[in-house]
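Quick one before lunch.
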Amino acid sequence: MSKIATLEVDGQKIELPVITGSENESAVDINKLRDLTGFITLDPGYKNSGSCTSEITFLDGELGILRYRGYSIEDLAEKASFPEVSYLLIFGELPTAQQLAQFDADIKKHTLVNEEMKNIIDGFPKTAHPMGVLSALTSALTAFNPKAVNVENEKEMYEAICKTIAKFLVIATWTYRKTMGYPLNYYDNTKGYVENFMQLMFRLPTGPYAANPIIVNALDKLFILHGDHEQNCSTSTVRMVGSSHAGLFASISAGVSALWGPLHGGANQAVLEMLEEINKDGGDTDKFMAKAKDKNDPFRLMGFGHRVYKNFDPRARIIKKAADEVLNTLGVDDPILAIAKKLEAAALVDEYFVSRKLYPNVDFYSGIIYRALGIPTDMFTVMFAIGRLPGWIAQWKEMRENKEPIGRPRQIYTGHPLREFKSNK
Ligand code: SDX
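Model of the s-citryldethia Coenzyme A complex:
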């Protein structure tokens, strides 16, 4: 028997359907609310509002659960590869060996980026932030692939997916090469996806290059952990832009811009800068904890807190463990790891953080690993974007396949009532 919610407003009582998901989450369906009552709901930041139903990712913020297509993030991080998880997120099932090999081969058909794209990146100053360059280059891909994707045509959709995965990785690394003044590298179709990331980033024409398998393995795991996260800010942006039937590249480009913000994906860079500041300041974590709690101080403990997780972010647990392993294996002794652990330990017993259920999130430890792997700080959010790409594609595809209406929220107007025009000149 389907549940209903009763709402009484302005003396009128209405019944609204309740929908329940496969993990027993419930929502009041307000599709007919305005027609029935003239009222809308108001929820800045959408803290209580669902934008869609989705079969891709499930997370439980209270229990610290994260699953892609029903598989736990712990299992996927330990047992799968990033290309395998990308396939799972986008097509809904883990690939067979043959499907994975075909997916890899089909991606490799599109790994050459149009040479004219170099004219665009040459227009940027070396000092341009990689995320701004990546967003622009992603949007520019439309110029070289102008034909709109017919999402109803499986073959066209599949080709657009392979093209996006192939080219996004190359242009993402070009943003780093540009800041370093290095020549832009080409994808090497004899190597794997994550190994290619390393050679695209670090191979120099002056000598041979071989990626360290420990680093490739650690990055593969990190990309998996960033794969998708239901309706976060950047993914909601990708769905919103795509809902106007804008193209996949344009929608992903918008997602890159949303991810850039320090409250979202940009937090991994902000965490490192915060830890370096604390380290330079003598490592006094208590002083910075006090700043984070001081309402008059804009300082926040970056990498802490989450809109949904009111428990440990399961990804943070895995990344923290990986940070220890990677730094030990590489023989890196980074003082900021100790500072991060000291901050975490202090926050986990501090009333301010405990009462607000502020725990380390995915961004708190990831930057420490990236730094140990030789990734520069202002590339950290580009790393997040590379990991999140399959999630953005999966969510965009689901939104279009579900024929969702164009996103267009309502508002409550609080400005001037009608007034007669009287010039102030
Ligand atoms: C990501 O949504 C996703 O899924 C995102 C993500 C993904 O995979 O896509 O998980 C990736 O974006 C992780 C979050 C990265 N951002 C940061 O680490 C930035 C620092 N954290 C915050 O700014 C904050 O916690 C947010 C933005 C993450 C969440 O903000 P909310 O849900 O809007 O919560 P809020 O700002 O209303 O905070 C509630 C209270 C406030 O105090 P009071 O007004 O109740 O007294 O907690 C305080 C805040 O001041 N607070 C913090 C804090 N985070 C929240 N105080 C100090 N330091 C912090 N980090």
